[in-house]
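Ticket reopened. Same input as before:
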Amino acid sequence: MATSMGTTKSQDTIAGYLFLAPSILILTVFVFIPILIAFFVSFTSWSPASPLPLPQAEIIGTENYTNILVDPGIERTDFFRAVKNNIYYVLGVVPIQTFLALLVAVIVNQRFLKGRAFFRTAFYFPSITSSAALSLIFLYMYQSNGLINQTIAAVIPGYEPFNWIADPTLGATGLFHLVLQSVGININTVGSWATTNIMGLTAWDWLSGPSVALTAIMLLNIWSTIGTLMLIYLAALQNIPGSVYEAASIDGASASDLFWQITVPLLRPTTLFIVTVGLIGTWQVFDQVYVMSAGGPRKTTLTVAFLIWTKLREFGTGGAAALAFILFIIIGIFTILQRRVTERE
Amino acid sequence: MRNPEKEKVASSFPPSPRSDVSLSRRRIMRKSIWMTSLLLMVALLIAACGGATDTGGTGGDPVAPTEVPATGGDTTMATEVPATEGDTGGTGTPLTLLGWASSESEDTRLNEVVDGFNESNGMYNATFNPVPEYDAALQTALAGTPPDLFYVNADAFPNLASQGALAVVTVENPEDFYQPMLEAFVYEGQQMGIPKDFSVLALVYNEEMVTTAGVTPPTTWDELRSGLQTLVDGGQPPACIDATIDRWGVFALQAGGGFLSEDGTTPTFTSEPMMQGLTYYTDLVADGLASTPGQLDSTWCGEALGTGRASMVIEGNWIVPFLGDSFPDIQWAAAPLPAGPAGQGTWAFTAAYGYSVKSPDPDGSNALLSYLTGTEGMKEWTDLGLAMPTRQSLAAGFSEQFPDLKTFVDSAAFASVRPSGVGLPAVITELQSQVEAVLSGSQTVDGALQATQEAAEGVMAQ
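Engineering reply: fixed in the latest deploy. New output:
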């Protein structure tokens, strides 16, 4: 009996792997092997332009990594500049898009809402639109004679329209700096700590906040991602049985109690998923930057993913591969941190 | 905030089956509303997208406005690649020519030139394959079986040559070429590419605005400054000069130097001419006499001139077909760039043809290269009137044929090719960022050049 059970089990295992074989093969060829090769490339000075095949590439050890992380120079400065921008981007986009997606999902989930199918479609639509097309449309809206500037100028007297994406002065100024400047605080008045050089950037630079141009891209990204996240929330919301709300109402819960005590806790797994996906997506932001600003003005929209692309284009394949692995580790750390924080709650 | 008791109750509840009788009817209704709104949105979106692409297509290179279009065409990414015509009925050994996608007229013309090669040679059947995002595409192409001949961007040349990717080529009648352009493709004493054409910067201005203000084309720095002052005082828009060294760098040349030492090994960003040139430029901007394209709501200065947001621009000859196509009503004229304290100077941008050391058919590569860079092939190509011939013997005929471009051809006499080097593009980007900081008042000219010098020293030491 024991042997026959074992045979069945091993037969099952073999059958299982047979069924999996096509996807294992595809994953190996298109995912695992490329990752391994990229990892190898990150320790070489190889470039595809080189006539040497990859196995003969010159191995330079961790030089690609130390250039980015340790040795002072333009590579390190650019990397930490990108990290700084990216951190503000992530911290700005993820909470806002998660909250707004939840809000929108709860609203379009209301039974009393007339035409909610229309609103669901309307909110979801940006998500299925090509981000390149959206970026171009927003690029025109952010011009100084564009829709957004003109609207603000009409509402707020004294507002001087400027190109949010390309203006080298205001477009490149961080939001925190803007606020501080308006109350008369600048790098010269805060004290000498502001000029401390941390990884090629001054302490003052680190505390700039997202530049106006980066904020503009953040707004676009939030607007275009809400739809997808709303859909996920909507699916989760519809899984909450109505009887729970009913019971709570009978117990005397108010509308805000229902939201905070029932909806939000029951959506926890979904929120966790959305925040994780949001973290990964925002760390990898590329297409909007590529289309709208190419990293400018004054490198304030330079992101890590865009930096990888720049390096690749400039024949720095090894450096680009190293950056990609560093980005992978950053995303990993952030995701673990986020899980720790939410699990402890 | 959380009530664990309630949560426990809630999660242990079985999901209630939805027993709504009108569910199916409602679902159908919902579906039809959904479909209607979807259709509506699609229609809206198509309309919106159509508008956006139309405007986007005219704007030079909206992706990287600072990139130098080395062929002179605006390298719009979205350009449709026309089907190659050379592969119809050809019988010889196939050859591929890889290049960047540019304007449709350029692609068509190059196909015709390649057809001319196929006919005159008889042994080969070459086809032109234009691709977008060229530098990235070239790398992947070189990693496999390399194309028989390809464009070599001057900025990419040091990388390609130092990686050992390029074969050494022989130039027929080398003294006929503009020497700086030929020298741009020499690596360790070896010629590894032949410049196919070039573009050069000049001062292009809106004739109507300049005449109205009573300004004559400036020939010196002082005249440029006072001319712009008159224009701006008279209510005309300022000049548009991009913050990249590919534009304002001409002022450094006119002050007597560039950003690399003569032998191209030592960065000299903090040299006196650089200081003088950058100061002249940033003062123009600070005094409201010049602006960057971003400040003028344009992707590049050509667009600013076309839309009347700039009265003068420093741009290359690629602006000529652009203005003709997109802004045919603008009355423009070109003048050589004004002379600075050290005389005249301007940037020339060039690209070459080269082939790989791994070329599958070096004889074929060489045959095509010789044809395209020979007097006959180059004339045929430059007869399109876009980029200009690098063979000086063709210059006179070219200016006669295209009087609009005469100023540009003549400027070649005092043009320097913008130097490049491994890692230098990152330094150039950093410098632009620093210069933009100067323009916004948060950096000094000294500080910007000092920071760039340090960045360059770091890169070149590697």
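Chain B touches chain A through 72 residues (CB under 8 Å). Residues 332 and 413 of chain B are 23 Å apart (CA to CA). Please confirm and we'll close it.
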